[in-house]
Write a structure and sequence with these properties.
By secondary structure, this protein is an alpha/beta fold. 37% of the residues lie in helices and 20% in strands. It has two domains: 135 residues, Rossmann fold, CATH 3.40.50.2300; 186 residues, Rossmann fold.
Length: 361
């Protein structure tokens, strides 16, 4: 067993030091080198042979996007985590980086008040991703395949008799949960869905503010569907999709004339806000057995309890398979818990959704 070797690339001296000190404090990680811009980083990769790069986006001489594009030509499988600012510009650049082949991203802990808080953010958000992408190559123990005891339900279980899912059940809503690898997965999935889809779509992509609006706009430009960032008070209609806004849970509310979106800043669930579980619970409360849910690539187990609610109600669950997922965390938990009706590669999920939505119509 050896330590995971990280190359830290950032033009800010203070950021390099905070990241280096934090990563170096973990017993499984060592900072192999640092670089102040992309040109230096590309020179250092063959010298220090890192397992992974953390790559700033805004840098002089050669920025993160240029560096990423060059690195992917020579090192197509080297994990690269973008280190981006929590701004609209940072969000746009991050989505571009993911499309260019970045493995994942973490937002910089800016304006958090103290170095200790910034370091804790790095421990909480960056280090788990480094270990997730590099444990196998470094010979570290891989995350256990066993399902840990599920977290307690945030709301009581739905009180209805157990119902077996019917694969010929009509679905009146499509609910999607996704995280790591999600922007590219959604960019592949949505163009396969028709603009006259007979149901509304609600989805959670784990992303911070700014990023979700930009993601919705980007997906709309590539899809026949109208995809928007969710706003409280909007009425659900067929053929449109709503992405939960960053830092807000999104849930549904039944009114006399239809179903509407609500948002809130209730506590995080599964260390996430927005989270999949509260959305799925609210969907099931209204649509019950007529819920069609999909869990795509993602880290962690958000969506597991939500899918339990879907299955308890007699709804249907599709999950992305391990081979086509960037991380088989969220879909893997659901699959290994025996909750999935279908386990499919990403390129087959769109057609499966379409065929299921034809049932009863």
């Amino acid at each position: 067993m050896r330590k995971i070797r990280v190359l830290v690339v950032d033009d800010a001296v203070v950021v390099r030091k905070i990241v280096t000190d934090t990563l170096g404090g973990d017993p499984d990680i060592e900072v192999a080198a640092t670089a102040a811009n992309g040109r230096i980083a590309l020179q250092k990769i063959p010298q220090v042979n890192p397992d992974i790069l953390t790559l700033d986006i805004e840098m002089p001489e050669m920025d993160g996007l240029q560096t990423l594009a060059e690195a992917r030509k020579i090192y197509p499988k080297l994990p690269i985590i973008m280190f981006s600012t929590l701004t609209e510009r940072g969000g746009a650049k991050t989505l571009e980086a993911l499309a260019l082949g970045a493995t994942d991203y973490v937002t910089k802990p800016a304006n958090v008040g103290s170095v200790s808080v910034a370091m804790q953010r790095i421990r909480d958000e960056l280090i788990p991703k480094i270990k997730m992408f590099c444990s196998k190559s470094a010979g570290l123990e891989a995350p256990p395949k066993a399902i840990p005891k599920p977290l307690p339900r945030a709301t009581p279980a739905i009180k209805r008799p157990p119902t077996r899912t019917s694969l010929i059940q009509r679905a009146d809503i499509l609910a999607i949960g996704v995280s790591t690898g999600g922007p590219n997965a959604l960019a592949e999935l949505f163009p396969t869905l028709p603009g006259d889809l007979p149901v509304p779509i609600v989805l959670v992509q784990h992303m911070p503010p700014f990023f979700t609006k930009l993601l919705a706009d980007r997906l709309t430009s590539k899809s026949p569907l109208d995809i928007q960032e969710g706003k409280a008070g909007e009425k659900l209609v067929p053929g449109k999709a709503w992405i939960a806004p960053g830092d807000y849970h999104m849930v549904l509310e039944q009114k006399a004339d239809g179903v509407y979106l609500k948002t809130n800043q209730d506590p995080q669930e599964n260390s996430c806000r927005p989270a999949v579980d509260p959305l799925f619970r609210s969907v099931v409360e209204i649509y019950g057995a007529k819920t069609l849910s999909v869990i795509l690539t993602g880290m962690g187990q958000d969506g597991l309890i939500g899918c339990e609610h879907v299955k308890d109600a007699g709804g249907q669950v599709i999950v992305q398979d391990e081979e086509s997922s960037v991380v088989w965390g969220m879909p893997g938990f659901v699959a290994r818990a025996g909750l999935a009706d279908e386990i499919l590669p990403l390129n087959q999920i769109g057609q499966k959704i379409i065929s299921k939505l034809k049932v009863g119509r």
